[in-house]
Amino acid sequence: MTSAEKGVASLPIYTFDGRHFSRKEATFIQEMSLDVFLNERRLATIACTGLHTDELALGYLKSEGLIRDASDIRDMRIDPNAGAVHLLTSAAVAPGPADNPFRGSIASSGARSRLANGSHRLFDPIRQDGLKLSPEQVLHLMEAFIDRCTMHAETRGTHGAALTDGKEILVVREDIGRHNAIDMLAGYAILHHWNCSDKAVLRTGRVSTEIVFKLWNLGVPLVVSLAAPTLRAIELATEAGMTLIGAVRGRSMQVYTHERRIGL
Questions:
Q1: Count of CB atoms within 10 A of residue 183's CB?
Q2: Mean pLDDT calculated for residue range 192-209
């Protein structure tokens, strides 16, 4: 696999050690713009690494509430030369991008104004049965997850996210955008016909309202992050019925919402 196919590239740089400069090769994460077309209209331009573009495009549509699952997609065509993914949906799918307020938006950060109009209230409540984890399981899974964030270890330039069934890490995705990594997981789940109501998401970045919004849309009952969430994210996770854990450091963590899923 070439560096371009791995989403990284090496360049010579100069480092200063406090006394002298030295020249060495350093590895950097690549960045490209991905145009997502829905029913022949450009829906968004997403700044990304260029990896797993099919998952990213599908997950983005899922996050925006434009598709429910793989059955809504009639055709998908990836054009790597143009940096584009073209998707056609079935006639039964709700409004096309011509009626979508995010049409043509730049989604480098992934912020979603849908939250402002309360559309998340259309989501089904998250199941209260099913997945439960002990504190030991949470810490073990986070350690295994971090070990698999190889692009971050190499470049220090990515955010990571993973899906787990509570026993093992099922899939890890990394990208320059923390929202992109979540969208990739959503796309992976769609392509593999997975139900996420019995899975947890592990993250490296801050949990914001947009992240909770995306995970609620997927039905994910539990999210664990290295970072602390925002206050509004805690409020939204409480409303969603989602267990939110953050500030995982060594053997410590903080539980913000719905603590029953970890035995409290």
A1: 29
A2: 94
Exposed/middle/buried for residue 80 (C-beta within 10 Å: 0-12, 13-18, 19+): exposed
pLDDT classification of 5: cutoffs 50, 70, 90: low
Closest by CA position to 68, among listed 164, 203, 161, 196: 196
Q: What integer best gives the mean pLDDT of the chain?
A: 86
Q: How many CA atoms lie within 13 A of 82 on its CB side?
A: 10
In contact, 172 and 160? CB cutoff 8 Å: yes
172: which 2 tokens? 């890890």
**Residue 159 parent element (H or E):** strand 159-164
Q: Are 60 and 46 in contact (CB under 8 A)?
A: yes
Burial of residue 123, with CB atoms counted within 10 A of its CB: 0-12 exposed, 13-18 middle, 19 or more buried: middle
Chain-centroid distance, C-alpha 222: 14
Q: What percent of the chain has pLDDT over 70?
A: 86
User: Which tokens is 210 given?
Assistant: 């947009």
Tokens of 42: 């450009």
What does the alpha-carbon distance between residue 117 and residue 219 come to, in Å, rounded to a whole number?
20
pTM of the model: 0.86
Here the tokens at position 203 are: 């993250």
Residue 106 CB neighbours (<10 A): 11
Helix (H, G, I), strand (E, B) or coil at 45: strand
